[in-house]
Structures are given as structure tokens and as C-alpha cells.
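sry for the spam today, last one i promise. C-alpha cells for design, 262 residues
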């Protein structure tokens, strides 16, 4: 294997496989353009998924990696729980908006709320979704109570920011924190078709809240990534909150898909 690695054969094979998959997903011309753009060395990459959808990626590890996770690996594809329609979608931990755009392409009539606490990510989220009138952007953190929080690892990768209660650690700028219940009230929603949650450990505080059962009872499909590696007992707290409900759960990539049988 060493000689082939030195010759770069393995790398070329992986690149060819990636190119083939882009073409499979987006046809020949579009797939080639996406693959070529991702290989460029420039500060910002512009990916054109359609005439109406352009995605702007900062040329860093996080943006490119997440783009591939969402659109190449299709980590949010609803394999086991296909929904014929989804009208109300929440993207908690929206980062730069890639999941929201993915869901918007699957469900063009859906109203989507995207919540992202970190300012640079949020600005990129706004830029990426500026042509999507159905996507509402909130510069806030999903939390266990309506409060103020802050980023406690500002030097981390753009996809790994964690928030902490301001009363625990006071290091940076205050960020509004909001519960799922308050978010539903703000937008006058009485149900959630899809709730995607990737909030870097804050799920522990979210599901510790005694009111979590109220909005879980209104949710059809929850897609969540748990982060016990960042914060102990995230999984234990999450599954305890699910105990009152009948549901089916499957693992897909880094996420757990929970389909509630309400």
C-alpha cells in the first residue's frame, strides 16, 4: 500500500469516486462544475446547485466538509421515514444554512426557521439563504430557557462552536438564547414536521427542561446529533426525555432519526 500511497493512486481513486457521485446526483454538467469548484484554492467557493440556488462556502475545512456531508453523502435524506410533505421545519444549529437549503429543495413549500448563534456563521447563513423567502434566520442559540449565552470556544472550527450560560462564564458577547417552545410561539406554529438539531452539546440543557415534552408531542420527525464527547450525559438526558413517547429511531451517519408515533 505504501508505494501506491506515495504515487497518489489512492487519492486519485477517491477523487474519481467523488466526481462520479457528484455527476450521479446533479447530472454531468452540474456535477463537473461542483467538483471543479470544490477543488479551487480561493477564499470563497461559489457552488451553483440550480439557477436560483447558489451556495457560498468559505474555503475552510468546516464549510467544505459540511457541504459534502449534506449534498454528497446526503446525511439528511429521509431514507427510513419518507415524508410526503413537510410544511414546518426547524434547523437548530444551522451553521451556514446548508441543511436548510437541502430541506428547502426537498420541500419547496415548507417554512423553515434556521437558528445559528455564531455571528460569522450567521452572516454566511443569511448570504446563502437570501434568495429563499421561506427560510427565516435567527441569530440565537437553542437552549433550555430563554436567556443569554455566549460562545465559549471562539477559536474552534466554524462547525464546532459551543455555548454556555452567561452566569457560568463571562468571556464574550451576549447571544440571545431561546427555547423551542418560545420559537414556536414567536412564529405562531402549533406543530413541527422536521426538527434538525446539531447544537454541539447544548441538547443536554434543551432536553433537561421539563417543558421539552410539550414540543416533542408536536414533532413528527427529529433528526439529532448527540455530543457526549463535548458534554457528559447528553444521550442519557435525551433518551430520558423520549420515554413518554412511542417512537421509532434509526442511526444514519452522525445523526439519530426519531419518528414519533403521535
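last one done:
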Amino acid at each position: 500500500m505504501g508505494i501506491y500511497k506515495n504515487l497518489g493512486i489512492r487519492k486519485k481513486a477517491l477523487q474519481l469516486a467523488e466526481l462520479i457521485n457528484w455527476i450521479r446526483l446533479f447530472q454531468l454538467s452540474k456535477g463537473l462544475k461542483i467538483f471543479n469548484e470544490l477543488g479551487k484554492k480561493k477564499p470563497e467557493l461559489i457552488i451553483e446547485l440550480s439557477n436560483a440556488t447558489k451556495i457560498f462556502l468559505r474555503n475552510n475545512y468546516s464549510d467544505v466538509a459540511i457541504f459534502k456531508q449534506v449534498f454528497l453523502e446526503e446525511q439528511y435524506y429521509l431514507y427510513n421515514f419518507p415524508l410526503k410533505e413537510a410544511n414546518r421545519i426547524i434547523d437548530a444549529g444551522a451553521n451556514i444554512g446548508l441543511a436548510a437549503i437541502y430541506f428547502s429543495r426537498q420541500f419547496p413549500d415548507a417554512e423553515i426557521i434556521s437558528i445559528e448563534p455564531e455571528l460569522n456563521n450567521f452572516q454566511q447563513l443569511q448570504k446563502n439563504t437570501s434568495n429563499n423567502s421561506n427560510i427565516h434566520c435567527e441569530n440565537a442559540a437553542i437552549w433550555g430557557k430563554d436567556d443569554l449565552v455566549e460562545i465559549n470556544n471562539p477559536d474552534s472550527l466554524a462547525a464546532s462552536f459551543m455555548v454556555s450560560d452567561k452566569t457560568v462564564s463571562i468571556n464574550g458577547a451576549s447571544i440571545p438564547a431561546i427555547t423551542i417552545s418560545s420559537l414556536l410561539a414567536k412564529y405562531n406554529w402549533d406543530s413541527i414536521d422536521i426538527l434538525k438539531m446539531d447544537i454541539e452539546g447544548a441538547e443536554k440543557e434543551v432536553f433537561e427542561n421539563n417543558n421539552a415534552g410539550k414540543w416533542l408531542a408536536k414533532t413528527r420527525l427529529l433528526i439529532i446529533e448527540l455530543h457526549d464527547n463535548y458534554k457528559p450525559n447528553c444521550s442519557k438526558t435525551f433518551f430520558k426525555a423520549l420515554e413518554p413517547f412511542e417512537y421509532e429511531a434509526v442511526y444514519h451517519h452522525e445523526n439519530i432519526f426519531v419518528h414519533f408515533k403521535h
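The longest helix spans residues 9-38. ok im logging off now
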